[in-house]
Amino acid sequence: MHILSHITMVTTCAAFATAGPVLWDGRARFNLTGADLNSNVGPFLTVVKGSENASHYSSLLGPTLAPTPLWAPRSGHLEQPVSISIDNTSVFAPGGGAPQLGFRRTEFIAANNGDHADLIPVIEGGKTAFHFSLRADTKRPLNLTHEYQVVFIEPNDGSHVFEVQLGSPYTNPTGTLPSADAHEIKLRDHALDLLFAAPFTPGAWHNFAVQVDWTNRTLAVLYSADAAPLRVVTPPSPNLSAQLGADGQGDFHFGVLKLPLVDPNDTPTEQGDVVHFGIQEGTTEALIYSGVFVENASHSISLGYGLTIPSL
Ligand SMILES: *[C@@H]1O[C@H](CO)[C@@H](O)[C@H](O)[C@H]1NC(C)=O
Ligand SMILES: *[C@@H]1O[C@H](CO)[C@@H](O)[C@H](O)[C@H]1NC(C)=O
Ligand SMILES: *[C@@H]1O[C@H](CO)[C@@H](O)[C@H](O)[C@H]1NC(C)=O
Ligand SMILES: *[C@@H]1O[C@H](CO)[C@@H](O)[C@H](O)[C@H]1NC(C)=O
Ligand SMILES: *[C@@H]1O[C@H](CO)[C@@H](O)[C@H](O)[C@H]1NC(C)=O
Ligand SMILES: *[C@@H]1O[C@H](CO)[C@@H](O)[C@H](O)[C@H]1NC(C)=O
Ligand SMILES: CC(=O)N[C@H]1CO[C@H](CO)[C@@H](O)[C@@H]1O
Description:
By secondary structure, the chain is mainly beta. It is built from 5 helices and 17 strands. Strands 1, 3, 4, 6, 11, 12, 13 and 15 form an 8-stranded antiparallel sheet that branches. Strand 16 (about 300-305) and strand 17 form a beta hairpin. Bound molecules: 2-acetamido-2-deoxy-beta-D-glucopyranose (NAG) (7 copies). The site of one 2-acetamido-2-deoxy-beta-D-glucopyranose has 2 residues, from loops. InterPro entries: GH131_N.
């Protein structure tokens, strides 16, 4: 009841606040090319991938698919959606270290012409809102008996300030698959508690904004399906297991990270090492993204179509 009246109140204010400045814009312009993706020119660092070039694992879709309508000006679209895929070659070896054979992953990291480190303090202080829209690639679907982590901010300790998860949460030993919530898109906090879930319907854009209050360590979630403007679905909630300051900051990732299933033929120690061991089918699978950007939310949050609400 309290939450509902809060939502009604903020919706009523929608017309009166102005949008906060965009601190980093990952909405792919039409001049962005596959060669730019391969050489980290533009807004994405594309190093988290397998052995092939970035353009093997990602496609700029041009006018073949309209991006989320939320940010399209009346004069037409300025951005093209991007598909991000994995296949059996998508084994990432961080810094030339041990290949992560348990995972298959391709992720884009927010950056300015390859520089991600200097961007982190810009997009991760005060209150900032992480906007992203994603949809299924119906020709290359995910396998929802697996867990996928598809959007997250990762500090150096490998934790996630928040994360978007699809599929069946990984467990050791393996539980009943697919899990009851396998077909839901789930937003989890740093402690991996569920903050919000919605059906991951194919053929629709799933639009999110996550407000991170970096000082008070809270998360708030806004969501809409397809052409509806964003609305608040989770009011600011404590996220106190996240660390304060630089230790709590990290790269903003989006893409496809597929966890394995536990392999019954592995030793117990190997079964406990999700990064390097487990079952992967090696299938080609993808998600499509648009509307990815970070906004200064110290005063307001954009809902789409030029609408804003005061920050939460
Ligand atoms: C694409 O165009 C935008 C806007 O005109 C410009 O800021 C950007 O540098 C261009 N990007 C590339 C990769 O050429
Ligand atoms: C990546 O692209 C470059 C330039 O097009 C090409 O020379 C190289 O062979 C490619 N690498 C792979 C692994 O395909
Ligand atoms: C998939 O990749 C793994 C690790 O490189 C390899 O062991 C396996 O044979 C590959 N599977 C297929 C079907 O290519
Ligand atoms: C966000 O906006 C606030 C209020 O205008 C300002 O004080 C702050 O410096 C801005 N943050 C960034 C990173 O620009
Ligand atoms: C999905 O993963 C399960 C578990 O490994 C496997 O049995 C199934 O064949 C996979 N489905 C597809 C379409 O690859
Ligand atoms: C957030 O933290 C600031 C400073 O620590 C405090 O003044 C403010 O009341 C807090 N806001 C909320 C909503 O908790
Ligand atoms: C919603 C919520 O309160 N999530 C977690 C935020 O962090 C604290 C501290 O670790 C957890 O106890 C909460 O469950």
